[in-house]
UniProtKB/TrEMBL annotation:
Compositionally biased intervals (Basic and acidic residues): 1-10
Domain BRCT: 183-282, 342-438
Chain intervals for the UniProt region annotation (Disordered): 1-29
InterPro entries, per database record: BRCT_dom, BRCT_dom_sf, LIG4, NA-bd_OB-fold
Organism: Saccharomyces bayanus (Yeast)
GO molecular function, one term: DNA binding
Protein name: LIG4
GO cellular component, one term: DNA ligase IV complex
PROSITE patterns: BRCT
Amino acid sequence: DEQETGKTDQEGPSEILNDSSTERRATNPKKRVRKVLSFCSIANGISQEEFKEIDRKTRGHWKKTSGLSPPPSILEFGSKLPAEWIEPSESIVLEIKSRSLDNTETNMQKYATNCTLYGGYCRRIRYDKDWTECYTLDELYENRRTKSNPSHQVENLQLQLVPKKRKRALVSDPFQQSREQKPISGVFAGLFFYVLSDYINSVTGVRITRSELNDVIVKHGGKLIHNVILKRHCIGDVRLIGCKLTRECRALIDRGYDILHPRWIMDCTAYNKLLPIEPSYCFSVSGKLRAVARRRVDCFGDSFENDISESKLSSLQKSQPDLLSTRQADKSFELQIIPLFLFSNRIVYIPRSKIGPKDEMLLEMKIRLFGGKITDQQSLSNLIIIPYADPIWRGDCLEEVHSQINEHVKASNSDTVPRIPRIVTPEWVDHSISENCQ
């Protein structure tokens, strides 16, 4: 059965000792706490971020055991003494989960509770818990008595058969729960999995626990193993899943095992097929496997074989700073070749002509492409383009333009001479672009 408890610090997880009378439990827990007893040592399941958070909150409160022994009235240890200790009121509460209690003779003397946890690992930091709300010695004794009393076990089993209790009983044993589930697909058929850590979805921020990952694997035809070192299965059919560099994960990496990211599990179930291993799915793998994975994606990390979703494409773009710098370099190169601001000081007026809409649109596009502006009012322009090649049409257009300029000059009340726009032909525009000057 799974055992859950809290602890006050990383090196010396502990029990809160209180009065054995159950009638006193209704009182304020801070008033009934007498001392804290060492219970277990936990290193697995704590991520680098959680280590940093523990260090930040407890920094400056640790005392070296060699220089100052912990007061027996507050802290009590067994034969195993930590290198440093901390006042319980300054400690951090962690939620610990384990397979069972360890009552072996070798471990009984190490901790003040005369027992410890077997296979314990940290699930999370409990910010909502005070150190006085940790697992108590009464609860530990009650738990041990329950496990050692067969009649009490039968009584509890009957209570678990009640529909209201059934869900809680199943959650307490994720491996038993996985065995009872029926596969809904065969995506992972023939493969064996060992999950090392939880997983936090980078897009939604939702935390997926180890037990939930195990459920997903079993639902899609995979099988779980609980000891990789025994090598009871073909090593080529085993997939180790994890994304936290815990002590167990580091030990497996040192032994030469490849660790895949839990994202591979979720994507396989999303696409309903076994996806090839790509660099984004490699948490810690050998150089040979990583080389194979890199050949399955392009230079930006986009897969040659797998479909890509919008969220994955967005995260791919954010993770490619080189792509942004390449775009900026391309823009700089274009600015050197194409004079984008050649006509930036020109407001162009083109009389409506009979040359055809295509030629007129092409002329306007050239002006706008190189920074110029187009206006429909001749009085606002500083450049007039006569679009006709025929001498008769061009002459008629020039007379009309000159007439409007004269009217504008006569209507001006300013003491200064109004600015006369420059009159050119479309050939002048092409020549200016080729010479990169007006």
